[in-house]
Design brief:
- The protein is α/β, with parallel strands linked by helices.
- The protein folds into two domains: 128 residues, N-utilizing Substance Protein B Homolog, Chain A; 180 residues, Vaccinia Virus protein VP39 (Rossmann fold, 3-Layer(aba) Sandwich), CATH 3.40.50.
- 45% of the residues lie in helices and 15% in strands.
Length: 429
């Protein structure tokens, strides 16, 4: 009679099940985090690390697995993909985990989650992948090669040249940075090879959690998630916010804002920032998603100048923080890279314009519209800002594009914003 499963095995199972769910919907997987309820903190952390790493390195891992499969990984049932991808992620990129433990527990998962005979496939494929890994060398600078993968500031050295030829830039960079060829080509065209290569590699970073305190000072959080929750709950002015996300609202610091409306408020990060930056202003917030709107419901009790729903009249500042492709935050939202398509961008552009058209009536003449995305796509950014200015008869008085960059304490996401001043018929001239 077998004993109870070890927690590490339960953590690996949680990650494998979540990745199987993603595989069933690849490449249109929704955003979301791994549910670690019921797992001890240490094993929950392992599950989260495996899950995130697998999402971030999906195409790289699939390329390695395909070399030892009779049919492409994507044609296997989702549960088997979950086992092989999470097992390969640990073997290739998590060098502190014992190889035998990773393989043995992955084989056990295949037997349990797929079928008994699947254990043989898992064993064979993962042992071959393990044999491909020569060493993870944190201080060995990565350069494009057929036997080397980027790993933070270092490299994973392989025992044989199994990656595409770097001369085939699109295919090579797609595999080593786990970005679809359509995204790689689009960035090469938009930014040029050198800058695009840097952006693609930045998508492999591990973003820090940046916390803004009640005085507006930002710093990376290094304590536990439980401690973070307690810290945030102690003061409503505190928030988790990447520096790039804070820049758009900061651009309104010099304006006389007595009223503002955030109709795409999400869970209220920029709403909180607006209320803190303009303490005399009445700030209205809303979101079309029921779940996010429910999160917003708590804001008025802790920030009295924040109200829910649309404002009763025109406001000084309309914030349009619209849904976008998330290409400025691929390190933070790794699944977004797989959804990228020109058709998706076109649909988002249409949605952004629909949102703007619907809400422009809330901006008073002579007031301002702040348009913001976490995208770096010109069609969603500069093109939309010019369309919006023309639509409302206003003019762009400030705009900025931030490309994602940096590592550790110097890390920041990418994004865009434009501040548009509306005409005022009552104003002379």
């Amino acid at each position: 009679m077998s004993g109870p499963r070890r927690n590490t095995d339960a953590g690996r199972e949680a990650a494998a099940r979540a990745i199987a769910h993603c595989a069933a919907r690849f490449d249109h997987m929704p955003p979301g985090s791994l549910d670690t309820a019921g797992l001890p903190p240490r094993d929950g952390a392992l599950a989260v690390a495996i899950h995130r790493l697998t999402l971030q390195r999906w195409l790289t891992l699939a390329h390695l697995a395909d070399a030892f499969l009779k049919k492409p990984l994507r044609r296997l049932e989702p549960a088997m993909q979950g086992v092989l991808l999470t097992g390969a992620a640990q073997l290739v990129f998590m060098d502190r985990l014992p190889t035998h433990a990773v393989v043995d527990e992955s084989v056990s998962l295949a037997r349990r989650l797929v079928r008994p005979k699947a254990a043989g496939m898992a064993n064979a494929v993962l042992r071959r992948i393990a044999a491909l890994v020569d060493a993870a060398v944190p201080d060995l600078p990565w350069t494009p090669a057929r036997d080397r993968l980027p790993l933070g500031a270092g490299s994973v050295v392989l025992t044989e040249p199994c990656l595409p030829d770097p001369a085939d830039r699109v295919a090579y960079w797609s595999v080593v940075t786990s970005c679809p060829t359509r995204l790689v080509q689009a960035w090469f065209d938009a930014f040029g090879f050198e800058e695009a290569a840097g952006l693609l590699r930045h998508g492999l970073e591990t973003p820090p959690t940046i916390v803004v305190d009640e005085h507006g000072a930002a710093a990376a959080w290094t304590d536990t998630h439980a401690a973070l929750t307690q810290y945030l709950d102690a003061d409503p002015r505190r928030r988790v916010q990447d520096p790039a996300s804070a820049v758009p609202v900061d651009a309104t610091a010099g304006l006389d804002v007595r009223s503002a409306y955030d109709p795409c408020a999400g869970r209220g990060t920029k709403t909180r920032q607006l209320a803190a930056l303009h303490p005399a202003a009445d700030v209205w917030a809303d979101d079309p998603d029921d779940g996010r709107a429910a999160d917003l419901a708590a804001l008025p009790a802790i920030m009295p100048k924040v109200r829910l729903g649309p404002p009763p009249g025109p406001v000084d500042l309309l914030l349009l923080d619209v849904p976008c492709s998330n290409t400025g935050v691929l390190a933070r939202r790794p699944e977004a890279r797989y959804r990228y398509r020109q058709s998706v961008v076109r649909d988002l552009v249409a949605l952004q314009q629909q949102i703007a058209d619907h809400h422009l009536r809330h901006a008073r003449p002579g007031g301002h519209v702040l348009y913001a995305t976490c995208s770096i796509e010109p069609a969603e950014n500069q093109g939309q800002a010019r369309w919006l200015a023309q639509q409302c008869g206003g003019r762009i008085i400030h705009e900025a594009l931030a490309l994602p960059a940096g590592r550790d304490d110097a890390y920041h996401d990418g994004g865009y914003h434009a501040l548009i001043r509306l005409p005022d018929p009552q104003s002379p001239g």
